Amino acid sequence: MKTIKKNQVIIFVTALMLIVAGYLNYNTNLENTPVSAEGVQNEVVNQTEEAKLVNSNTEIEENNNTSNSNTSNSIAAKEDNTIETSSKTKDEYFTTSKLGRDTMYSQMIESYQKIIDNNGISQEQKTVATEEITKINTTKNAIMIAENLIKTKGFEDVVIFVNDKSVSVILKSEQLKQEQIAQVQNIVTRELNCNIEDVHISNK
After folding, report:
1. In whole angstroms, how large is the CA radius of gyration of the chain?
2. Please, what is the end-to-end C-alpha distance for the chain in angstroms?
3. Do 162 and 130 meet the contact criterion of CB atoms below 8 Å apart?
4. CA torsion angle for 27, 31, 37, 40 (degrees, to 10)?
């Protein structure tokens, strides 16, 4: 009887020792590989920062693409505006020049007409004024015909100025070929009844 009890005590002590050894081993593993709330939080933060970095790089790349696209569009727009402005400036030159020339002729005719209408002016002076008005109108009509004929040769626009015997012809063209110059000279000398050496041709 005593032998049985003694054996039971030994088994119990042995089992208790195994339990204690297992418990100590478990605690040791926990100490060697600690998992804390702070560690988990740091891991989450690191993953979040990595995600933000990826998003930031994507946004930078998208912004660069957008910036490059906007820059290209801006350059193209500037080029278009430059071309449009240049063309508009040329158009304004020809329109303004013709208007100024025609205004000058109108003012000259008006001045001569006042001489004709003035009773205090001699008949000889009135005759001269009348001849000048006729000459101006003839020149105006010749200029109009010459400009229209020159346009039929493929020029976008042209303006002609007559100063005594000298005739200036300004053509709207990037360049002038010798053949074109000869055509313009032929038209101007015929319609304005002037010498070819008095015709000065340029482009704008």
Report:
1. 51
2. 134
3. no
4. -120
- Per-domain residue ranges for the chain? 2-29+41-203
Per DSSP bridges, beta strands 199-203 and 166-171 are: parallel
Beta-strand pair 166-171/158-163: antiparallel
- The token duo for 189 is 């000398």
CA–CA separation, 123 vs 37, rounded Å? 120
**What's the longest Cα–Cα distance across the chain?**
174
CB neighbour list of residue 171: distance below 8 Å, 6 or more residues apart: 150, 155, 157, 158, 184, 201, 202, 203, 204
| Pair 133, 109: CB distance under 8 Å | yes
Kindly report, residue by residue over 134-148, the tens digit of the pLDDT. 999 999 999 999 999
Which CATH class, in words, describes the domain spanning 2-29+41-203?
mainly alpha
The C-alpha angle with vertex 7 and arms to 6 and 11, in degrees rounded to 5, equals 120
Closest CA to 87 of 152, 177, 148, 172: 172
Please, are residues 158 and 191 in contact by the beta-carbon 8 Å criterion?
no
Q: What pLDDT, in 10s, does the model give residues 151-191?
A: 999 999 999 999 989 999 999 998 999 999 999 999 999 99
Read off the tokens for 177. 């070929």
